[in-house]
Design brief:
Elements: E1 2-6, H1 13-21, E2 29-34, H2 40-46, E3 50-54, H3 60-70, E4 75-80, H4 91-98, E5 104-108, H5 120-133, E6 145-148, H6 149-155, H7 164-174, E7 179-183, H8 194-215
Parallel strand pairs: 1-2, 1-4, 2-3, 5-7
Antiparallel strand pairs: 4-6, 5-6
């Protein structure tokens, strides 16, 4: 089952859902609409997804965690709503888990992505993961992941907001789960603009909030 995090993604969510539905072993796509102010939910439904919608935003980690309480699957495919047609490339990530090669598989984007940030948050997350659990992450912030039900239970509750991915990797490695990274031809919405810098600021703060308790073994 695919679980898609989205907020104000009306432009791309339809293409994302359609691409995920083309993956043979994805039985259902659920879009978690975290307080969108646009037509994200309507576009997702039109594309064939079920929608869990919240009127007020909780933040990514909390919204996904609540969605996990409402649905069941042996394997989850987690994706962001702005992948568009490139979401079909997550088939390789999903196969790594379905074939038994990993408990948690994380998508690695192509090395050159136009419109990205300056890398500060990514470097911070990468350093924290290496320091706290010894895993050398290429793509520490990637929300594109496949994970077994047993593994997701071991890393819940998910960290707040955009700290979800960094915390999930740390918790999974510490729990002795098999974590791998899988190259995938994915693309995100460009983020080197005002919206992107605001997003990176929130992401950085959420990563810090997720890492600090884990540094003191409080999680």
């Amino acid at each position: 089952m695919a679980l898609v995090a989205a907020r104000d993604e009306a432009e791309l969510i339809g293409m994302t859902v359609q691409a995920l539905r083309r993956i043979d072993r994805v039985a259902e796509v659920i879009v978690v609409d975290d307080g969108s102010r646009d037509a994200t939910s309507a576009r997702a439904i039109e594309a064939g997804a079920a929608v869990f919608r919240r009127e007020r935003a909780l933040g990514k980690g909390d919204a996904i965690d609540r969605a996990l309480q409402r649905a069941n699957a042996d394997v989850w495919l987690l994706a962001d709503g702005d992948l568009g047609s490139s979401a079909s490339a997550l088939n390789a990530v999903l196969e790594s888990v379905l074939e038994g090669d990993a408990d948690l598989a994380i998508a690695v984007f192509p090395p050159v992505r136009e419109g990205g940030g300056f890398g500060l948050v990514m470097r911070t997350a990468r350093w924290a993961i290496r320091r706290l659990c010894g895993f050398d992450a290429t793509e520490p912030l990637s929300g594109q992941r496949a994970i077994t039900a047993t593994a997701i239970a071991a890393v819940r509750p998910l960290a707040h907001g955009f700290g979800m991915e960094t915390a999930m990797t740390i918790d999974a490695v510490r729990a002795g789960l098999r974590v791998v990274e899988v190259p995938a031809e994915l693309s995100h919405r460009p983020y080197r603009n005002v919206r992107g810098f605001v997003h990176r600021g929130r992401q950085g703060w959420d990563v810090v909030r997720a890492v600090v308790p884990r540094a003191f073994r409080l999680r």
